[in-house]
Amino acid sequence: MPTLAFSPALPATPPAAAPSLFGRIGTALRVLRRVNPPLAWAGWLNLGLAGAALLLLPLDHRVVTGLPVWMKPLKFSLSIVTYAWTLGWLLADLPAAAQRAVRRISWAVAAAMAVEQVVIFGQAARGLTSHYNASTPLNAALFSLMGLFIGVNTVAAAWAVYLAWRHRPHGSASYAWGLRLGLLEFLVGSALGGFMIHAGQHTVGAPDGGPGLPGLGWSTVAGDLRLAHFLGMHALQALPLLGWALGRRLPVRPAVALTWGGAALWAAAVAALLLGALAGRPLLALP
């Protein structure tokens, strides 16, 4: 791009102010809406659902499994916002040769999250839990429907992992490895939900709904499989961010090595939380 020279007879134009944090976020979301409409709109839809759940929290005093009935819809809505926007942004960094598959993955994930939220919000409106609820044929069918679409999401995530390892993502080498390893550990973290499905509950060594951390419900008296599940899934944000930050500050080889080291530590933390939960040990034992 050619450089424009200022005339010495005219006052210099002051440099434009750097965009604010909110301005940069707004720009990023507009770009995401252009490059990946399904996941961009999935995020906005769930942001609206989070707002609705937040409004209902002080108005509806019913309790389900030890938490206010609208707490689970709120948590899942915020989680899906984070997931959809992060995945959409990461997949946009794959080369053009992968983008046809990216569109299919994105529609599959958006549809899976929509079905899951319909069941979660519908069951919350009935004052019931959506997960592991087979108390009636209808509740069992709804949970099975959720399980089916969770499977769809898992297959889509596995396809994304394959694409990220087959096609070199744009950006520094450490960012590319952070993206690949983040997707892989996210997939493993998602698969840990199978332990909860097999047990029919989140808690190991006590029934669901007992004493738990405020707002989260993670058990403080027994093992809780949700911790390892949560940490594994959020590798999707942490590891690409780590690789990007290291790539900006270090030469290629140490940046890549530290990205791999960070991924190994993250995986070890997930494994430790899983083993502790399976042994019935709470992360925090509160009175």
From TrEMBL:
Superkingdom per UniProt: Bacteria
Keywords for the protein's UniProt record, in alphabetical order: Membrane, Transmembrane, Transmembrane helix
Annotated transmembrane regions: 39-57, 77-98, 105-125, 145-165, 177-197, 227-246, 258-279
Name this protein carries in UniProt: Uncharacterized protein
Organism: Hymenobacter polaris
